[in-house]
Design goal:
elongated, 35 strands, 3-stranded antiparallel β-sheet
């Protein structure tokens, strides 16, 4: 017949059926069920409480929420001591009050019925400032609990702005799970940007500052300790401490200060926070991120990949980093243009470079896998016009803006992307598949002096020599492959002394890495002389040197 809440140390009655109330057992909404069948419920989980009820005679013991403040304090004193934590205060329920053990103890949560005992509504950030007129300002947790256990009455006052922020920060530090993008801390909502920025503020906070707090203002410092570069947990730890002053700064002021700080750095990076704007130093600069409130610095809506093209009306499309920062310091509104394919591609690469590697990974309209060499898995329609040929799944990335890749390492490729126009060239994955399949089949055949392996025919010299290559396979190589060229490396292994079986084994597991060298003068003629002398000994002896067959050179062996 009961509707219960499980948020307090004891199950709390929210509602009940009318026939529950008996003459000798008055029940009110807000009462707590302390025990069943003589078994206490304190600190039991929901499932444990339900099991106790199932196993008992159903006799319930209820109590008002303020009855066990002293008893709860006594129980906590006899339990294990408060654990030491590096950056978060200890928070626990003491009867109907949930306290953060800072000085003085601050209420972060309370049972609604405690108002009957304290004769006032209790809110987040209210402070237990005295126990029977004795100040708690310097009292430890143990001293407070001993006073409560001895029956001393708590005195609670409304929390100041500092108390509200300290209480809210304590509660947030105690919460588990992934950190959110923004949090309410009493009357102000902060977004966890660099530095933290105001997303919203309640009207009552206006009286605490010399100027109205506005959306987009930055929390610059807590007791003169700057917050820029600190993560959410570190900022919350500052707010829990016994601070005296908070420094907020308008977005445009912080923007200029950020530019001045960036200009003074001796080790600039590819991407930098300038106040509330994170820029990639391309030409023109590309916006990677914009803190809440800094939209007022620009005209119109701002998105990732937009281009910063003018400051104070001056074009900066070819300006250096230092020139851009000096213009920002001088003040003035930014003019941005909607990002195009190139800027959004650059921004996507810059953002990817700062996060842990994932595989596969989207960079602009392209999805790559980073195994041994960048391979294309998928391309969106927007990307088709920026590749130099038809592409398919598992095609290999060969060049960026016409410049060949010297390494397939993810970091190196992303850095190329960051300053590119996004013009990509790929090698067909068909070549790899055909080569692997043909090499695997040739492994089971007897030795030969030459083998056609799908799109390529090799003669088993050391290293192997190319006799023929299919036209479609030429796109795979940086330079056109010609008969007589030599295959010197497969999958990173040199082939100078490799046997036919070893080469075929490597090709059957081909991972995309293949290196050739241009043939030396007369190499192809010597190879054909060797083949002909082995296949037709009399012809080789009689002619001295065998002419190259046009049919064989054409690829039809």
């Amino acid at each position: 017949p009961f509707q219960l809440s499980w948020s307090s140390p004891y199950p709390t009655i929210l509602a009940f059926a009318p026939d529950v109330v008996g003459q000798d057992w008055p029940v009110r909404a807000g009462d707590e069920i302390a025990a069943c069948g003589g078994v206490p419920f304190r600190n039991c989980s929901r499932n444990r409480i339900l099991q106790i009820i199932v196993d008992s005679d159903g006799t319930l013991q209820t109590k008002g929420p303020g009855e066990d403040l002293g008893r709860a304090a006594a129980e906590l004193l006899s339990a294990c001591p408060m654990p030491a934590t590096a950056d978060a205060p200890w928070i626990e329920w003491v009867g109907p009050l949930r306290l953060a053990w800072i000085q003085p103890p601050t209420i972060v949560e309370a049972h609604p019925r405690i108002a009957d005992q304290l004769r006032r509504v209790v809110r987040l950030g209210d402070v237990v400032y005295a126990l029977d007129s004795k100040s708690t300002e310097t009292m430890s947790r143990r001293q407070v609990l001993e006073a409560l256990a001895s029956g001393q009455r708590p005195a609670v006052r409304p929390g100041s702005l500092r108390d509200q922020l300290r209480g809210a920060a304590s509660l947030l530090l105690a919460q588990a799970g992934p950190p959110p993008q923004a949090d309410w801390l009493g009357p102000v909502k902060l977004a966890w940007t660099q530095p933290p920025s105001v997303m919203d503020a309640k009207p009552e906070i206006a009286s605490h500052f010399s100027r109205p707090l506005c959306k987009g203002d930055f929390l610059l410092a807590v007791d003169h300790r700057h917050t820029e570069g600190l993560d959410r947990r570190s900022v919350l730890a500052l707010l829990v401490a016994a601070w005296e002053t908070l420094e907020f700064t308008p977005a445009d002021c912080d923007f200029r200060q950020g530019a001045a700080a960036a200009l003074a750095r001796t080790d600039p990076t590819d991407t930098e926070w300038v106040g509330g704007v994170r820029l990639l130093w391309s030409k023109p600069p590309t916006v990677l991120e914009l803190s809440a409130g800094t939209e007022s610095l620009a005209t119109g809506k701002v998105d990732v990949g937009d281009l910063l093209v003018r400051i104070q009306g001056q074009d900066i499309s070819t300006a250096t980093r230092a020139e851009v920062l000096k213009l920002i310091i001088a003040g003035g509104q930014m003019a941005l243009e909607d990002g195009n394919y190139e800027s959004k591609f650059r921004a996507s690469a810059a953002i990817a470079l700062e996060r842990p590697q994932s595989d596969p990974e989207w960079i602009g309209p392209f999805q790559f896998t980073w195994s041994s060499w960048p391979r294309l898995l998928e391309v969106l329609p927007a990307g088709h016009s920026h590749v130099q040929q038809e592409v398919g799944q598992r095609d290999l990335l060969l060049s960026v803006d016409g410049c060949e890749l010297q390494t397939g390492e993810r970091e190196d490729v992303l850095r190329k992307f960051m300053y590119s126009k996004g013009q990509l060239s790929f090698a067909s994955g068909r070549f790899e598949r055909d080569l692997r399949d043909a090499a695997a089949m040739a492994l089971s055949n007897s030795d030969g002096i030459a083998n056609q392996l799908g799109p390529i025919t090799l003669h088993w010299t050391k290293p192997p020599t190319v006799l023929w290559i299919a036209d479609y396979a030429q796109n795979y190589f940086r330079c056109p492959l010609r008969p007589g060229d030599q295959l010197i490396q497969v999958n990173g292994e040199a082939l100078n002394a490799a046997t036919r079986q070893r080469v075929l084994s490597l090709l059957s597991e081909f991972d995309g890495r293949l290196q050739t060298v241009r043939h030396r003068k007369g190499c192809l003629r010597l190879v054909w002389n060797k083949i002909i002398s082995q296949c037709w000994p009399s012809r080789g002896k009689s002619n001295g040197r065998a002419p190259l067959s046009p049919l064989l050179v054409g690829g039809e062996a």
